[in-house]
Amino acid sequence: MNPTSPPVPESALPGLAVPGSAVAEPAVSEPALIEPGLTEPVVTEPGVPGQPTIYDVARVAGVSIASVSRVLNGRRNPRPETRERVLEAVSELGFIPDGAARALSARLKEVVGVVIRRPPPVTAPDGSVFEDEELSLQFSDLINRGIEIAAQRRDFNLLVSSVGLDGHDEERRIFSLARKCDGLILHDRVLDPARLARLARLVPVVTLAGTPTPTTVNVGSDNASGMAELARHLVRDHGYRTLAYLGGYSDSPDNLARAAAFASQVRADGATLLDGPAWRGNYFAAGGARVIERMLAARQPLPRAIACANDQSALGVVYALTQHGIAIPGEVAVAGFDDIPMARHLRPQLTTVRQPIQELGATAFDVLHALIGEDRADRADVMLPTRLIRRESCGCPSGAGPLARAAG
Amino acid sequence: MNPTSPPVPESALPGLAVPGSAVAEPAVSEPALIEPGLTEPVVTEPGVPGQPTIYDVARVAGVSIASVSRVLNGRRNPRPETRERVLEAVSELGFIPDGAARALSARLKEVVGVVIRRPPPVTAPDGSVFEDEELSLQFSDLINRGIEIAAQRRDFNLLVSSVGLDGHDEERRIFSLARKCDGLILHDRVLDPARLARLARLVPVVTLAGTPTPTTVNVGSDNASGMAELARHLVRDHGYRTLAYLGGYSDSPDNLARAAAFASQVRADGATLLDGPAWRGNYFAAGGARVIERMLAARQPLPRAIACANDQSALGVVYALTQHGIAIPGEVAVAGFDDIPMARHLRPQLTTVRQPIQELGATAFDVLHALIGEDRADRADVMLPTRLIRRESCGCPSGAGPLARAAG
DNA sequence: TGGATCTCGGTAAGCGCTTACCGGCCGATC
DNA sequence: GATCGGCCGGTAAGCGCTTACCGAGATCCA
Predict the structure, then answer these.
(1) pLDDT reported for residue B23
(2) According to CATH, what is the number of the domain A111-221+357-384?
(3) CATH assignment of B111-220+357-384?
(4) How many angstroms away from the CA of A80 is the closest CA of chain B?
(5) Which residues of chain A form CATH 3.40.50.2300?
(6) A341 with B132: Cβ contact below 8 A
(7) Binary contact (A202, B148; C-beta < 8 A)
(8) Which residue is nearest to nucleotide D12 (CA to C1')?
(9) Pick from B103, B129, B159: CB nearest A159
């Protein structure tokens, strides 16, 4: 009697309840809404959350489920009359096909998974300002936005998951996520190469700012050019002679590339690079602040300019320097990397290397989508351009220098 | 011959290819990897992306698919030996069940949809600083983080989607999203009440900071208390006599509640409230800045204190005031609402009403999860507490006043 | 006008799981 | 020692779609 059950043919006469036929089933304590005389038992069941299925549509439209499916998916070329009847039934019932059933049948879920790394809880050296590092979310979230915008164009959705670094349950979660979608986009450092390879056998995988592997495709930005441009600017245009690079995670490919590019350009230009394990901020504001605090506590001389692995840690550096009354850029110039939106809200406005954050995400999706579609898709890594954004913190005049405008 | 195809029983003798049986199928140009003599045709097909299915596991383990399923889902109580053989086969094949198939069969997708409203592109009055409003994402993203953290505890994933306000394709997208998940969490103002009701018939729906409806559950925070506390603080503690509330969207329930609470408290305390349509920033930094610019351009007197509908617009107010050399809090005090992470990075640090952003998200998920589980779940709206965070921009001493610490 | 061809609905076989039901085996019970 | 449950595996029926295949009718051309 349930209008939602497929196997029931036309046998159930409209308006005639046949109690006997229901006996075959075990007593499910169904309210048995017997309403004789109802000419058309409308298929909306108030309490029951059961949705109309394609069978309901077919019955109401007086066609087969195949026709319904064909109309809805634009296959073949249904007769106008058929199409009309189906569409009418669809809108009458408010039918929307179930995602899982479509996915199972069509072997396409129209979902891509995104895994980001959740930053660990950080306690700042002074226990004050950086008690939570939620700001660092901005970068990942902007990338995700880019992914989503691109995904929408293809009617895909984003299934997001974040992992901590305890690694406890993470692997299981990522792998089961993989089976809920058609492909995966992994932010930097969420999985080691061995597991990555295993994962890539399950679904197509695109890494963001990761290490290229034979079975995955990487999308990143041109760290080297941007960083070299920044180094040249600091040394040649501003004439700074001692510089330092405040690094990110030592296992981050982005960080390594930036460090190498900065160092080699600084040295090529004959300036001095302060180096060593002390210069590591791990991409966090708290980390950047801590480096400065320790330098000052140890009475070590600061460099004339500090290039940070990202804007986030630059923010910490700016904060710490300001706390100690050190003028930026007067005494120490500071630069970041990324150009997150808040970089321009800092005082002084932060000079940084812009990478096209949203575009990074959008590109990652497009690449993944190609991978999902064809078996033999282009497996070439993608590198997006970066460019120096001159603001105040490097010593450039405020209000955006002419070069910055010209580059736009 | 495909080891992944369920219907093939044990008939295919190991190591014996039967070409004739494949003829029934149309020529699919299968490479026909005939390797006689292979004692155990290992089920890993190199090129083919086809994953092992539960049938493969059952065959390798020498049990039925029901047993495999029972072992993996911990149903009944399989004999230790059975369990062991299944688990061994699972790990040998690297089997992970397909999400769509599970969802279809178990009638549970373990996915909740989240819809956020993407802010429209905004052009700032001076065309410079606020060219993109990506900062405003922080609030939504923090909520999403909260949702995700709660979801992870239940092995659910988040399917995110954003909508613009053109409304063009939005409705279709939201409804089809609904059929890809077990329930939906909607941020403020993504759907009008009529459509909301229709959506709620499809899946359980929880709104965030929305309007309560009979068929959805709302999770929000206690705007009234927080705002009243702020008003009292500004008037009673600081003695400000003229104040203004810089509003958000006029159709935002949060905004309306905040406006009402602020106004009534200010008036109750006998101070003057500047009012009118001019005082609307629409939650954006650019909007907040524009209000100030217009006030100044029209030579209208500014109030002694401005409470903004959210931190975002407070940021714009601070920016505009600073641009004009107006001292904060010396000449005009400013306060926000939300306590987004960057509130404390502003100079001066922003006094604001904190709402537990992540907790809002986590609560929304928990409520939704309850709705998904039971049919007759608690349909009671939830209101989370807010509290005033005193920082510098209201006139309190820097370094967080004693009250703020005590309240923690 | 008769067959070849084309068009378009319907039938039914999956997609890869979960689970109701059945039945064989076992120890416990009388 | 026959009976009765309890335990546990297997069988098979779905879950709600898509689509290969078939066949009836319409169309076409000789």
Answers:
(1) 27
(2) 3.40.50.2300
(3) 3.40.50.2300
(4) 23
(5) 111-221+357-384, 223-356+387-407
(6) yes
(7) no
(8) B66
(9) B159
DSSP assignment string, B271-334: -EEE-STT-B-TT-HHHHHHHHHHHHHTTPPPPSEEEESSHHHHHHHHHHHHHTT--TTTT-EE
Kindly list the averaged pLDDT for each block of 10 residues, start to end, along chain B of length 408.
Answer: 36 28 30 32 42 93 95 91 93 95 96 86 44 60 92 95 78 94 92 90 93 92 96 96 94 93 96 91 89 94 96 90 92 94 82 94 95 76 95 83 30
A99–B181 C-beta distance less than 8 A:
yes
A20-29, A395-404, B107-116: which has the highest mean pLDDT?
B107-116
What does the pLDDT read at residue A284?
A: 86
Report how far residue B261's alpha carbon sits from residue A134's, in angstroms, rounded to the nearest whole number: 29
Report the protein residue whose CA lies nearest the C1' of nucleotide D10.
B64
Q: Write out the residue limits of the CATH 1.10.260.40 domain(s) in chain A.
A: 19-97
- Using the CA of A51, which nucleotide's C1' is the nearest one? D16
pTM: 0.83
Q: Which residues of B touch A101 (CB under 8 A)?
A: 100, 104
Q: Are A99 and B148 an interchain contact pair (Cβ–Cβ within 8 Å)? A: no
Q: How many Å does it take to go from CA B297 to C1' C2?
A: 90
Interchain CB contacts (distance < 8 Å): A and B: 145
Residue A49: which pLDDT band, with cuts at 50, 70 and 90? very low
CA distance B245 to B231: 10
Confidence of residue A266 (pLDDT cuts 50, 70, 90): very high
Q: Determine whether the interchain pair A162/B148 forms a contact, defined as Cβ–Cβ distance below 8 Å.
A: yes
Number of alpha carbons in the 13 Å side-chain half-sphere of residue B307: 34
B chain contacts of residue A375, beta-carbon cutoff 8 Å? 49
Choose the weakest-confidence range: A40-54, A112-126, A165-179, B66-80: A40-54
Find residues whose C-beta atom lies within 7 angstroms of strand D. A 4-7, 50-51, 53-55, 65-66, 68-70, 72-73, 75, 95, 97-98, 101-102, 104-106; B 25-26, 62-67, 70, 76-79, 81-82, 101, 104-105, 107
Write b or e for each residue in A392-402: b if 16 or more Cβ atoms lie within 10 A of its Cβ, otherwise e: bbbbbeeebbe
Reported as a single tens digit per residue, the pLDDT across A140-182 is 888 999 999 999 999 999 999 988 766 668 889 999 999 999 9
Q: Establish how many alpha carbons lie within 13 A of residue B21's alpha carbon, considering only the half-sphere containing its beta carbon.
A: 9
Could you tell me the distance in Å between the CA of residue B66 and the C1' of nucleotide D3? 30
CB A317 within 8 A of CB A308: yes
Strand C bases, protein C-beta under 7 A? 7-12, 14-21
Q: Which residues in chain B are classed under CATH 3.40.50.2300? A: 111-220+357-384, 223-356+387-407
Summarised one tens digit per residue, pLDDT across range A189-243 is 888 888 999 999 999 999 999 988 999 999 999 999 999 999 999 999 999 999 9
The strand order across the sheet containing A333-338 reads A272-274, A242-246, A305-308, A333-338, A351-354, A387-389
The whole-angstrom distance between B136's CA and the closest CA on chain A is: 10
Residue A177: its chain B contacts at CB < 8 A? Answer: 157
Q: Name the CATH code of domain A19-97 (choices 3.30.1490.480, 1.10.390.10, 3.30.470.20, 1.10.260.40).
A: 1.10.260.40
Question: Do B179 and A96 count as a contact with CB atoms less than 8 A apart?
Answer: yes
The per-residue DSSP string of A134-154 comes to: GGGHHHHHHHHHHHHHHHHHT
Task: Measure, in angstroms, how far nucleotide C24 C1' is from residue A180 CA.
Answer: 38
| Superfamily name with CATH number, domain A223-356+387-407 | Response regulator (3.40.50.2300)
Quick check: A100 and B103 CB within 8 A? Answer: yes
Pairing of strands B382-384, A351-354: unpaired
CA–CA separation, A162 and A156 (whole Å)? 19
Task: Determine how many CB atoms are found less than 10 A away from the CB of residue B72.
Answer: 19
Q: Residue A34 pLDDT more than 70?
A: no
- Residue B401 — left, alpha, or beta (φ > 0 → left; ψ -120 to 50 → alpha)? beta
